[in-house]
Amino acid sequence: MTAPRWDVADGPGALPCHLVDPEVFFAESPADVEAAKALCIGCPVQQACLDGALDRREPWGVWGGQLFIAGVVVARKRPRGRPRKHPVVEPYAPAAARQQGKEAAA
Ligand code: SF4
Questions:
Q1: Which PROSITE patterns did the record assign (predicted)?
Q2: Total structural domains in the chain?
Q3: Quick check: 63 and 22 in contact, CB under 8 A?
């Protein structure tokens, strides 16, 4: 996906964040956050927006194409919930087949 180019001559109302639902820039979903960051690409005031957000230590949201959490830029938004302590282990295939056979016989 290529982000559309925005022209300063279009005025502040034409900034990408002024043309979409502002909630996208404060989304919970990592996919929505990435979509908001993509909207900032090509914004004519992206660098000034980012500099301002850094100066203000914005507590939350996408500013200048970066995600801020607690005043600092973070690379990616983590999904909600506690991270797993252990990786998910798929059942061993023969064991899974035996289990399916037991269930089919019952
Ligand atoms: S860089 Fe700033 S002004 Fe431009 S679209 Fe993103 S949040 Fe809006």
A1: 4FE4S_WBL, HMGI_Y
A2: 1
A3: no
Q: Binding-site residues, please?
A: 17, 40, 43, 49
Cα(87)–Cα(35) distance, integer angstroms: 28
Would you give per-residue pLDDT tens digits along the chain (106 residues)? 444 555 556 665 689 999 999 999 999 999 999 999 999 998 999 999 999 999 999 999 999 999 999 999 999 887 777 777 877 666 666 666 677 777 766 6
If you search the block for the tokens 């559309």, which residue do you land on?
A: 4
Q: For residue 89, is it within any domain?
A: no
Pocket test for ligand 1, best of 5, 18, 20, 40 (most atoms within 8 A of CB): 40
pLDDT for the residue numbered 86: 79
Closest CA to ligand 1's atom 6 = 40
Ligand 1 centroid from CA 74, angstroms: 17
Question: Does the Cβ of 63 fall within 6 Å of ligand 1?
Answer: yes
Q: Domain of residue 6: give its range.
A: 1-75
Ligand 1 atom, smallest distance to 46 CA = 1
Is 35 in contact with 24 (CB distance < 8 Å)?
yes
